[in-house]
Structures are given as structure tokens and as C-alpha cells.
Amino acid sequence: MFLSEEGLLTEYAAPAKAAPRAPVLDLPLPKDFVLGAATAAYQIEGGAFQDGKGPSIWDEFSHLEPSRTSNENGDVACDHYNRVAEDVELMKSYGLQAYRFSICWSRLIPLGGRNDPINEKGIAFYNNLIDRLLAQNIQPVATLYHWDLPLELQKRYGGMLNTPQFQADFVNYARLCFSRFGDRVKQWITFNEPYIISTYGFHSGILAPGHSTSMGNDSRTEPFRAGHSIILSHAAAVKAYASEFQLHQTGSISIVLNGDYYEPYDILSEADRAAAQRRMEFYIGWFGDPVYLGTDYPACMRKRLGSRLPEFTAADLSLLSETAPINSFYGMNHYTSQYARARTGDPEEDDMTGNVEELPYDIDGVEIGPLSGVSWLRVTDVQFRKLLNWIWVRYQRPIYITENGCPCPGENDMTVKEAVNDDFRIRYFGLYLDAISRAIYEDGVKVQGYYAWSLMDNFEWSAGYGIRFGITHVDFKTLIRTPKRSAFYLRDTMKQRKSKAAHAPSMNVPA
Ligand code: GBH
């Protein structure tokens, strides 16, 4: 076991060097474990100019010249906006019990702000989706913000760079969603992946609004300002939900954090072991500590970032500590893991990592896992189990896996016939579900659901349509949907795993 910089006991098992990958065992899962699939509005809906929708920062970003999204955009995407009935039928055939989607803010409030008009046609679209889901007994899980800020708010006051304005507008939008959909939506997620929003939106500039030092922005401070706005807007929305809606609507609310697990590059190096812990605190603790513990940013961030990191006022801290316990689950997006190596020398002036180098192999050159169809994603199911433990120990909340999945190697160059035989993805799902089973039954971690990313191939942000995460193949010329075998694997393995659960050792949940 290791101590992090501020002395928190954080690591459970000794890091394993790339062990040979085990076969999928279809290990048991609890009877009430929830199988779902996930999507995001801009990635699937299309209908970008339909029925009074206002533009979002993604409508602008995906039309920039030269293109920053692989010469593609989400104007049509999967045309889900016009194909809801068909898509809900697909979900039904996959035996899904939950569907996680995101709401496009600028469909409901085209200009986005608290004094701007509401677009009833946008509300009607989500009402129809929700009602169709419930008619098939599929639980709607709604994310309020999956990256598509109303463009007007970016222009009006800089969006997330203006904390009080953004917070007020976000809470107004959240209230609208709770009041219109909360009679039927019982699991709410405020923000998807604040780390990615902050770092990719305001540091590397790979995602909208595309700020970076090379574009003339201040990437030393902007990511942390954006993150600060997200945390405080989340907390204010949670407070609004708890005080105005939760009593009669009886739903739950939380945030979704993503993050890799980091193994030390050199297990024998104390500096690398500390670097691995620090990297996770800079990634996950940045948001997890204020949101779930109701405390300040991790001590290692305060120490290393100095004035780059905004301060919470006394009122902010009391809002955070008041709302922390209301976040009744931990929403985890997780795909892969890496090795962390302590950098020597001073960090870059806009460092986001705690001065840590990230690598796919360790000191012996052993790769952390097999490469999928995208360069940043390797199959690392062993580390997934470790991350589940890390989160459970630190935040003590039941976990929902709100996204997990991968593209198969070479998938985008395949014919439909080849693509539906997605053995690589099936194996990935199988191993990651086995890891969940071990975390539950061997480690005592509470994991309550698994939402595969993604229901269908879709607009993969800066990568355009070339990277396919779907359990459904989408032909982007004809928009024809074809189920991949992994969709039925998920349905069937879930049944099998749950029937084994009766014989599984009882859950040993630590106090
Ligand atoms: C999730 O982000 C998103 O929530 C979802 O919308 C997305 O479709 C899904 O993952 C699959 O990517 O191009 O090498 O710079 C996961 C975090 C952040 C991981 C951006 C990939 C790009 C790496 N992602 N990152 S790179």
C-alpha cells in the first residue's frame, strides 16, 4: 500500500506487470445489476437546425476552416433526432434496462440564458424519447451537459470562463429539465467528464471551444477556471434538485468523471509510485474531492499549481459540503490505463499532470495491454478493477459505469458484414465485466450498473466518423443501423452472469 502526497491511503493491490490476458469467464453479477447503453446529443442527434434549435459551440467548432474535426460535423450524425422510434426498438431488442442520453441545452433554450425564451419543440423531442423508453421498460438516464454549450453563452460572457454567469444559467437550465422531465427521469447526471471539458477545451484545444496557448489563450489558468465553474454549477444544480424536486420526484443525481488508472512506470521507484497516485489526483481528485468529499482540491494540486488554481470562498465550501452527500452514486466513464513516470526537473508552465509523463509501456518495455482500434485505448481490465477499488475507498459511493467500450482494430475499414463480427469488442466487454464481478465479490466494491459506450457508431468529436464505438453499426451514407454481435453478447452474458449470481459468494462490503 502507498501513501499519496497528503498521506491518504490510496492503493490496494500491488501493480501487476502486463500479465497474459485471461480468457473471458462470464463471472457472476448481482441480480439487480443494470445493463444500459450510452450516447450524447451532438454525437448522434443531427437535426442541427431543426425545430428551432439554437447553435452550440460544437456547431461552430465542427464547421471551422481549416477543419478541426477531420472534415466532418454533426449536422446529420446518426439522424437520431428523426429516428427515435427505430432506435428505441433497437434498444429493446438488446434487452437494455437503461439508456443514458444527453440533453442538448440549445434545443430547449436556443440562446441558453436564464432570461432567454424556451423552445417547446425541443422539449417535445425529449418527452417523446422518454415516453418511448418507458413504454419498453427502459429507464431514461439523462446527462444535462455533454459538451454542447449554447454558442450564445460562449459569445455573451465567455461561457465557463465566467463562473457566476455560467452557474446562474446552468442552474436555470437544470431546473427546466428537472421540472419538465423529472417526473420520469430518475437518474440525473449534471456534467460529462469535466476533466476532458477543461483540458481538451481550454488547454490542448482539441475540443470546443478550442482554446489553447497557440490560439492566444491562457492555458495556464483557463482549464482550472472552467473546472471551477463546472464544480460550482454542478453543486448549485444538485442543491436545486434536492430542495425543489427530489422529495416528490425521488430520483438520484451526480456527475460523471472519467479517468485512467495509472501504474508506476518503475515499480521500484518511489518517485514513480508517487507520480502514479498524483496523476490520478490531478485527473479524478480535481473534481471528485470537491464534489464527493465536499472539500478543497487535492493538496498536491494546491501545492503544485499555486495561483493557477482558483480558491473556493467560504460560501462555496459550505455549498460543496452541503451537497456532497446528495451525490448518491459515482458515475464512472472508463476506457483504459497507462504508466506514470515522474518527470525530473521543473514542470512546464502550463503543466496539467503534476509533472508526470504518461506511457503505454513500463520500464521493461512491457505494454500495459493490447491496442484497440484507437491509439489511446488499450485493453487494461486488470487496472479497471484497481480503479474501482481506488474510487470506492476514496469516495465511498456505489459506482455506475456510465461509459465503457472500444473500437475494434481496423474496424472503420471493414464492410458491414465484417464489422458486425466484433470479437475484439466482445472480449473487451467480457473482460471488463469480469473485472466488475471480481471487484464486487472479491473486493467488496459496490458496482450497480454498466452502460456500454455506445449504443451506435457516432460522431467521435475531433476524430469525425472514423472511430466506431457502437454496438450497432451505422452506415453514415444510408444511416442504416445493423446490430453488431456484441449487442447480443451483452444481453446474453448479462442473463448468464445474473443466473450465476445465486451461487456467488455474498457481497462483503466494508463498513
Ligand atoms: C468519452 O471520453 C466521451 O464521453 C464520449 O463522448 C466519447 O465518444 C468516448 O469517450 C470515446 O472517445 O485524440 O489522443 O488526444 C473519453 C475521454 C478524451 C478519450 C479525449 C480520448 C482523445 C485522445 N476521451 N481523448 S487524443
UniProtKB/TrEMBL annotation:
Q: Which reaction does it catalyse?
A: Hydrolysis of terminal, non-reducing beta-D-glucosyl residues with release of beta-D-glucose
Can you name this protein? beta-glucosidase
Q: What is its EC number?
A: 3.2.1.21
Function text:
Plays an important role in cellulose degradation. Shows hydrolytic activity against several glycosidic compounds.
Cross-referenced InterPro entries: GH (IPR017853), Glyco_hydro_1 (IPR001360)
Query: Does the keyword Signal belong to this entry?
Result: no
* Protein family according to the UniProt entry: Belongs to the glycosyl hydrolase 1 family.
Keywords attached to this Swiss-Prot or TrEMBL record, sorted alphabetically, are:
Glycosidase, Hydrolase
The terms under GO molecular function for this entry are: cellobiose glucosidase activity
The organism encoding this protein is Curvularia kusanoi (Cochliobolus kusanoi)
Kindly list the biological process annotations in GO that this record carries. Answer: cellulose catabolic process
